[in-house]
Amino acid sequence: MATMIAARVHKQHAPMQLDRIPIPEPRSTDVLVEVKACGIVPNLARVIANVYANQSPAPRLLPPLPAIFGLDPTGVIAKVGDQVRSVRPGDRVYVNPARKCGSCRMCRSGRPLDCPNFTFQGYFGRSQEIMKAYPYGGLCQFITAPEDALVKLPDNVSFEVAARFGYLGTAYAAMRTLGVGPGQTFLVNGVSGMLGLNAVMLALAMGATKILGTGRNRTLLDRVKALSPRRIEVYAVDESVPVGPADPLVAWAKSMTEGYGVDSSLDCLPPGASADAFMRPLFTLRRGGRAATVGGVRETVSLNAFWLMTNRIGLQGSVWFTTGEGQDMAAMVAAGTLDASPLEHRIFPLSQVNDAMAALNDRNGGFTNFIVDPTRAE
Ligand SMILES: [Zn+2]
Q: Which of 199, 263, 334, 354 is most deeply buried (CB count within 10 A of its CB)?
């Protein structure tokens, strides 16, 4: 039997272990992908440590141990199931890890992200059955995936850039609901982080007229502004100032928008950020403005409902993106409208996966793109 190397978590707080296991056979409507690059996210170590300790609110489940993690795999199709018709061995792909049940009311109406059993292959989710059906995260050499989860990659889209689609797509799906585009002013809260930087790159690609960004690290803020000095403005938040309409951030945002306030904002703050930090940019919204969050703030936010109503403010959460939205991003990168060149790839062989995990906290904000290369396993 053909075998491969997989990095597996055997127990909480223990390093991943390189194991030799059988290469799986794809089922009828699945494909087998040889992984060339897998993105890893700073949240992975926290998820493994906390969720196996049951410190996370239900219903977030982790795959049974030993588990293969890895959220953003890209690679080449090695084999297809006997019912797969439109992709073939040799195709370069990004595997969207979003799994759904396929037959609930939401799935049947084409809304997979709203499936009550929504589960990430190689990460965490809401269904143990789905995790058992797709137990291969990207930190191994071959994975099976459903045929409808594949984003085909044009030749000029590198595996390293595609391995960033998780963050890019998460921002993109939320930004589509916000209507970010020509004529619009868009604010990114937490602009220099992994999600925030990607939101700025996408806003440039989607034609937003002015892009405002808030953050704390002056050096990183300046690097973000340098991506397009004419369209991007950045603001270093003063956390000693009370949150509300009198915050100088609000006056600054209005000065950039002919006095109106911004059309939309996206929260990209990391886990551990405060409710105040989440609330602060909401007051920069114009009347009728809309905010979305893809960030990790866990604190309870106290919002004045009357203020929401009288100012016609919209606020919504967003998680992940569809495979179609992933295909949009591949097309944008291929056409050059989405410039991925700000990303600095840090590539680790699979044999150094634990070093890669340890290196995640040492990064140039969102500019660093952490990649594990499973073709180098030994
Ligand atoms: Zn479903």
A: 199
